[in-house]
Amino acid sequence: MTENTENLVLEHLRAIRGTLTNHSERLERIELRLSTIEQTLGGLYALSASDRETLQGALKRIERIERRLDLSDNDPRA
């Protein structure tokens, strides 16, 4: 009886080890995907900041052109 019990326990431990290995591999893939997503988001934030700077520069140039051509209103709220 003890031999059957030992075999049963070993069988369960092997199954647990196999499941744990599968979970570890899956977790590694998830971590890799998450890292890729984080890098992509970082790149998007950098592009967004660059676009914002470009837009601000263009707006300043337009305002300067409008002032030179006397096209802008005197009301600063406009």
Explain what you see.
With 78 residues, the chain is mainly alpha-helical. 86% of the residues lie in helices and 0% in strands. It contains 1 helix and no strands.
SSE succession: H
Cα gyration radius (Å): 32 Å
Mean pLDDT: 91
Q: Could you say which overall geometry the principal axes of the C-alpha atoms support? A: rod-shaped
The poorly predicted ranges are none
Question: Roughly what percent helix?
Answer: over 70%
Share of residues in strands: under 5%
State the end-to-end CA separation. 91 Å
SSE-based structural type: mainly alpha
**Tally of alpha and pi helices:** 1
Task: List strands and helices in order, with pairings.
Blueprint: H1 2-68
Keywords:
mainly alpha, 78 residues
Write a concise synopsis of the structure shown.
This protein is an all-alpha fold and 78 residues long. It contains one helix and no strands.
